[in-house]
Automatic annotation (TrEMBL):
The EC number(s) this enzyme carries: 1.1.1.103
Gene3D superfamilies found in the cross-reference section: NAD(P)-binding Rossmann-like Domain
Protein name: L-threonine 3-dehydrogenase, mitochondrial
Pfam families attached to this UniProt entry: Epimerase
SUPFAM superfamilies per the UniProt record, alphabetical: NAD(P)-binding Rossmann-fold domains
Top-level class of the enzyme under EC nomenclature: oxidoreductase
Function: Catalyzes the NAD(+)-dependent oxidation of L-threonine to 2-amino-3-ketobutyrate, mediating L-threonine catabolism.
Gene Ontology biological process terms, A to Z: L-threonine catabolic process
NAD-dependent epimerase/dehydratase domain boundaries: 33-268
Domain of life: Eukaryota
Family per record: Belongs to the NAD(P)-dependent epimerase/dehydratase family.
Catalytic reaction equation(s): L-threonine + NAD(+) = (2S)-2-amino-3-oxobutanoate + NADH + H(+)
Pathway listed: Amino-acid degradation; L-threonine degradation via oxydo-reductase pathway; glycine from L-threonine: step 1/2
């Protein structure tokens, strides 16, 4: 009889765990990493962090859009449509990829505008990545979201394991992603990892069509017009994080040792606020007469189904999730980053108006 079959039950379980750990050991150092959807809101900051850690040449950025010259100059970039499994496989093989950070997605508001596209990219795209991870032994990190929860989920200190019956295409596709990732991990030993991001706030790249985008738009509007029309109600509290905390946490989970992980999908919470609390902070730090109007649209119904705060003790315990920035810090950073951009734009507009005024009139 083979040794494994003759083992007592506990020894057999330990053997199975060790075998799973061996199968999950996608620990090449430094790993070659592919980032899908790298030109989105979060992608370029994530690519920068990965390149700083693993080396420029070891991180391949990809998307279906054309990168800016600076993005192309900062390291390898390839066109990769996650819906085309064969083409994606060619990139993985050609570049000897070990880990995939899967950022291609259609976000909540964009998904409600085009459900067919949301289903296709979020479900079929993810299935392609996961299947290639199985075939080629890759580690896959694919973020989930607070949008994976739904109207019947407890809204305060929402735990990792709770009712998950979302009613948006985005949420449904993310629950599918979480469950399928766990299934592939259990059944085939695919090293799948995920964390449920809150709304992510950043200044360097525009948001991609989510329900928390107001918390970015408001800074542009404050600096441009000193007024903003918010698409959510004044008291809609949602979990949020600044992008540096988001990327730092993603790196921590990506690099965490296998045996530290007690689950495959983790809640992460950094801070939470409502539009009126954000407005109060913008008035305090930027302009006391900043004007706000609330005109809720279809995104209100989405936000109403999401948690207000999340419980994240397992992420803190297992892999050291430790966000550092709260609401006042985020407002300070966003204003400091965007202020020079709008000052420069205003100066350029002024000098081109002056040049126009000085130009001799053309007589026809
Ligand atoms: N930004 C947030 O606040 C937030 C919150 C929760 C979760 N997330 C998750 O984080 C990840 C990244 O989000 P983001 O905000 O950068 O999204 P984004 O919408 O800004 O970017 C997504 C990128 O995917 C690309 N893409 C679309 N279809 C594709 C396809 N067929 N093949 C390859 N690429 C394709 C787009 O061109 C885009 O650059 C997503 O999984 C998203 O669900 C983001």
């Amino acid at each position: 009889m083979p040794a494994a079959l003759s083992m007592a039950m506990p020894a057999r379980r330990a053997f199975a765990r060790a075998a799973l750990a061996r199968r999950l050991s996608t620990g090449a150092q430094p790993p070659r990493v592919l980032v899908t959807g790298s030109l989105g809101q979060l992608g370029s900051t994530m690519v920068d962090a990965l390149r700083a850690r693993f080396g420029q040449a070891n991180v391949v950025a990809s998307d279906i859009r054309k990168p800016a010259p600076s993005q192309r100059a900062s390291g390898p970039f390839v066109y990769a449509d996650v819906l085309n499994r064969r083409a994606l496989e060619q990139v993985i093989v050609d570049y000897g990829i070990d880990w995939v950070v899967h950022f291609s997605a259609i976000l909540s508001a964009a998904g409600e505008r085009n459900p067919a596209l949301g289903l296709d990219v979020n479900i079929n795209g993810f299935q392609n990545v996961l299947e290639l991870a199985r075939v080629h032994g890759l580690r896959v990190l694919s973020p989930s979201t607070i949008g994976a929860f739904g109207p019947t989920t407890p809204k305060d200190l929402t735990p990792d394991l709770t009712i998950m019956r979302p009613n948006t295409i985005y949420g449904i596709s993310k629950v599918h992603m979480e469950l399928l990732g766990e299934y592939y991990c259990e059944k085939y030993g695919v090293d799948f990892r995920s964390l449920r991001y809150p709304g992510i706030i950043s200044a360097d790249s525009p948001p991609g069509g989510g329900t928390t985008d107001y918390a970015i738009d408001i800074f542009h509007a404050a600096l441009k017009h000193n007024r903003y029309t918010c698409f959510l109600q004044h008291d809609t509290r949602l979990p949020m994080a600044y992008i540096t905390d988001c990327v730092a946490g993603t790196m921590q989970l990506l690099e965490a040792p296998q045996d530290a992980l007690t689950q495959r999908v983790y809640n992460v919470h950094a801070c939470d606020f409502s539009p009126e609390e954000l407005v109060a902070e913008v008035r305090r730090q930027h302009s006391a007469d900043f004007a706000i109007e609330y005109c809720p649209d279809f995104r209100q119904a989405i936000a109403d189904t999401w948690p207000r705060t999340m419980a994240d003790a397992p992420a803190r315990r297992d892999w050291g999730w430790n966000p550092t920035l709260g609401t006042a810090d985020i407002v300070r950073i966003m204003l400091a980053k965007l202020h020079p951009v709008y000052e420069q734009a205003a100066a350029a507009a002024e000098s081109s108006a002056a040049a126009e005024a000085e130009a001799p009139a053309v007589v026809v």
